[in-house]
Specification:
eight-stranded antiparallel beta barrel, flat, disordered N terminus, mainly beta, 423 residues
């Protein structure tokens, strides 16, 4: 039981820290109120996740969001980002087929930016990234055609454009259009993911409406700091539908780079990963090892590892970091077997025998073997707005081969900042 659920529990704790940081009132703020509320109704369409996916009717969503402004002379990141709003959304989704696709209950921290203010008044972009509970899953016997979701707890993402239709004294009435996604980060298969498009009507309610024109903007000088960082990660994934038990992925990484204006963090580094699934498949001398790569059995540990380089970018928001990495796999020899198992399929011939067809090692395989990506959230122990020389963090990330989930990861790490340089 511990092995099955500990990752989801710890990720939930990290999201709790994240949500608290985004909506908690700053003790130094000088505006009378910084909190707003958004009830929202959405309708849309659940997209087919696979061939013969169950038919769905109109998708219906209810969301309720609590957010806050950041008009504060001490918040450099807010000034650099033109004073975005942050908060937490609670969502209910009926996918349009309650028996076979079901419903989702979501918790999504979000950040919202004003776009093209000089040209289009009232246009906003909101991005949310969190977790969801889905009450209906794939079952090989009772729900075999829904290959989208296999676990109760999943990653959840939404991206919406909003436009202010009209305003009253306390309410902004808005319409929106966007995209929603739910998937489990390769912790159980099948995992095609649930994708939806939706339109919305919402009301941003604030008894004391605020805009950046009501606030005297501080003038921050340009600055930069060099940093070094180290992290350790513990992930989980499954190898394929045949080898569908969660096992660990261990990671070590080091990076260095620049922190610009105490808000934007850019750098590069290297990573090392060890996959338990890869090791066990080699050590047990499974079929594809015997047929294709018998030399792997001479060093199971070595061939179960992954070495790579990566470029990292991160947005620093008080205690929170929103991170995106793009990587280059220098050494990942077992991915040849990983690909063949996951891109292949099985069928029964006329004699009733099961025939396995392996995935083709084509040009797309070469790209996915080479390119890695990583997206997630960090919670820093000390507020990054104060530019602490030493800091520590915990994080929750999803790692991928190009755009396909590889493993879900919890990590912790340390950041050291060198002397501040002011331009």
């Amino acid at each position: 039981m511990y092995n099955k659920y500990y990752l989801h529990c710890l990720i939930g704790i990290i999201f709790s820290f994240f949500c608290f940081s985004l909506v908690a009132q700053s003790p130094t703020t000088k505006v009378p109120s910084s909190v707003f509320f958004i009830p929202e109704i959405l309708v849309g369409k659940t997209l087919e996740a696979n061939t013969d996916f169950p038919e769905t009717r109109l998708q219906k969503n209810l969301f309720f969001s609590i957010g806050r402004y950041h008009f504060n002379a001490n918040k450099e990141w807010a000034a650099r980002l033109n004073y975005p709003r942050t908060g937490i959304s609670f969502g209910y989704t009926d996918f349009g087929n309650s028996e076979q696709v079901g419903r989702a209950y979501s918790l999504l921290p979000f950040i919202e930016f004003t776009l093209l203010k000089q040209k289009i008044e009232g246009l906003h972009l909101q991005i949310g990234f969190g977790s969801s509970y889905t009450d209906t899953q794939y079952d090989a016997i009772t729900n075999a055609f829904n290959r989208a979701i296999t676990t109760k707890i999943n990653w959840s993402f939404r991206s919406f454009l909003y436009y202010d239709l009209f305003k009253t004294e306390a309410t902004d009435w808005r319409v929106g259009l966007g995209f929603l996604h739910h998937s489990n980060g390769h912790t159980n298969l099948p995992n095609q993911g649930l994708n939806s498009i939706a339109a919305s009507v919402s009301a941003k309610i604030d008894k004391q409406p605020q805009s950046d024109s009501d606030f005297e903007k501080p003038d921050f000088k340009s600055k930069s700091q060099t940093y070094m960082s180290f992290r350790f990660g513990l992930g989980q994934n499954v190898l394929s539908e045949k080898f569908n038990t969660k096992k660990e992925v261990y990671t070590i990484s080091a990076s260095a780079g620049k922190i610009i204006n105490n808000t934007f963090k850019f750098g590069g580094g290297f990573y090392y990963r060890f996959y338990e699934h890869y090791y066990d498949y080699i050590n047990n001398n499974e079929a594809l090892i015997q047929e294709q790569l018998p030399q792997f059995t001479q060093n199971p540990f070595g061939y179960a590892t992954n070495l790579g380089l990566f470029a990292t970018s991160e947005l620093l928001i008080d205690h929170i970091g929103i991170e995106l990495d793009l990587g280059l796999n220098i050494f990942k020899p077992f991915y040849q077997i990983d690909w063949q198992l996951n891109q292949g399929y099985s069928y029964e011939n006329s004699n009733g025998d099961t025939i396995d067809v392996l995935g083709e090692l084509n040009w797309y395989y070469e790209i996915k073997r080479t390119v890695s990506a990583r997206l997630g959230l960090k919670y820093y122990i000390w507020n990054t707005n104060n530019a602490p020389k030493h800091n520590m963090f915990i994080g929750a990330h999803i790692n991928s081969n190009l755009g396909q989930a590889d493993f879900t990861e919890l990590n912790c790490g340390y950041v050291y900042r060198f002397n501040l340089k002011t331009n």
